[in-house]
Amino acid sequence: MKLEQSFEVKAPIDRVWKALIDIEHVAPCVPGAEVTEAGDDGVYRGNFTVKIGPTSAAYRGELNMEEVDEANHRATMRANGQDKRGQGSAKATIVSVLREDSGVTHVDVETDFTITGRLARFGRGGMIEDVSNRLMRDFAECLQRSIEASPAGEDESGDAGAAQPPAPNPVKGLSVFFSVLWERILRFFRRLFRRG
């Protein structure tokens, strides 16, 4: 399945770029994600927990920064994980491209992913796409707060990008599920009233 998503951050492109390619820095902005090990080879190991309605899955896996093209502000990451209970797997290739316009950085993200196991059934009917869009909005808001928390992009020692992001409010899978469901219902009724 492929997803194309976009968001904006009100900050210069260089600051957004440094934050996005710093996996340990942005991981707290991804609901359910935890980095447990950062290897010298650019491979990050960690855990990722997803809960959609009554269904949940906990993955253990790796994320690899496959390409970091600073000149074109393009980053490619590959992630793969196995369900801790052996009930499925997940693989994803994530390509992020940044561009700046009047001090605002636009981030286009293309994700190509495959999920097997318990969560795969949510791929039908677009539920995973809707949940992913909601989580991407939450991620963008957290990233914005993270960058704003360090106005100069430096900590007290003068190291750029060293400030840690504020801990995001945990996203509860059930509330995301019902929020997405409510948005779908509203879209349905809007289309219905437009036809009438």
Describe the structure.
The chain has 196 residues and is of the alpha+beta class. It is built from 4 helices and 7 strands; from the N terminus they run E-H-H-E-E-E-E-E-E-H-H. A hairpin with a 4-residue loop joins strand 4 and strand 5. Helix 3 crosses helix 4 (173-195). The chain starts with a strand and ends with a helix.
Helix/strand/pairing category: alpha+beta
Q: Can you count the beta strands?
A: 7
- Globally, the shape reads globular
Q: Widest sheet: strand order?
A: 1-7-6-5-4-3-2
Instruction: Output the number of helix runs.
Output: 4
Radius of gyration: 18 Å
Strand content: 35-45%
Characterize the biggest β-sheet.
Answer: 7 strands, antiparallel
Uncertain runs with pLDDT below 50, 5 residues or more?
153-178
State the CATH class: Alpha Beta
Please write the string of helix (H) and strand (E) elements: EHHEEEEEEHH
- How many structural domains can be distinguished in the coordinates? 1
